[in-house]
Amino acid sequence: MTRAYENSNPLRCPVRLYEKYIALRPKNGTVDAFYLRPKKIPCSDVWYCDSPVGIHTIQSTVKRLCQSAGIIGYFTNHSLRATAATRLYQAGVDEQLMTEKTGHRSNAVRAYKRTSDAQQASVSSVLHSGSKKHKLEELVDTSPSKFKQECCVNEETSDKEHKELREICP
């Protein structure tokens, strides 16, 4: 179970989308499944049959959506969970909240913590700056201007470091 909260964009608000989905299900349905099979010809007030979507249909959903959007690669429903964990980590969300949101019951969520180039540049800046005090906001700030500042070099920077910085800094 997860909690979702309303947001200001009605087209992407999970609460409004959930309410709409529930409203378009059969009123006196007998099936306990959450995902129902869509009708071939939906009525104005009922879009779904009183039968569950097949397991193979659910398993192939993300793959099918990615293909139709022209996104190349190997994607599964689990890719959504991994992407959510990575985005939460990069936004500085606490690990406990990450596990609650993604449904992990152990520290397995750590496997999905993928650092961004901006985070790597911030860490590099801390290590190379000589300054002992850095605010947490500076370490997770991924704005383009901040990222560019963190990519500065000094005369002690090696040729290899210059090359690496040129690769990640425009």
TrEMBL record:
Has keyword Ubl conjugation?
Answer: yes
> Which domain of life, per UniProt?
Eukaryota
Query: What keywords are assigned to this protein?
Result: DNA recombination, Isopeptide bond, Phosphoprotein, Ubl conjugation
Name all ZMYM2-like/QRICH1 C-terminal domain ranges: 6-66
An annotated GO BP: DNA integration
Q: Name one GO molecular function term.
A: DNA binding
For the keyword Ubl conjugation, the answer is yes
One protein family per Pfam: DUF3504
Put simply, this protein is called ZMYM2-like/QRICH1 C-terminal domain-containing protein
